[in-house]
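pasting for the record
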Amino acid sequence: MAARCQVTGVGPQFGHNISHSHRRTKRRFDPNIQKKRYWVPSLGRHVTLTLSTKGIKTIDARGIDVVVAELIQKGEKL
């Protein structure tokens, strides 16, 4: 499964490694993906989400209930 954040949708990006001689080779920039378990009072259960660090900060700022409601509305399986 690809490294993708469930909240922000960020995934791997692609670019080049550039050597001293300026030779380019393909590389991949992976996001910092973490598995995090939250208690969701509105559902009455724990939910495990695959999040980037920016997604974790988003949940801290907006609240888990708001974010989970948006994920359910998008049709994401929790």
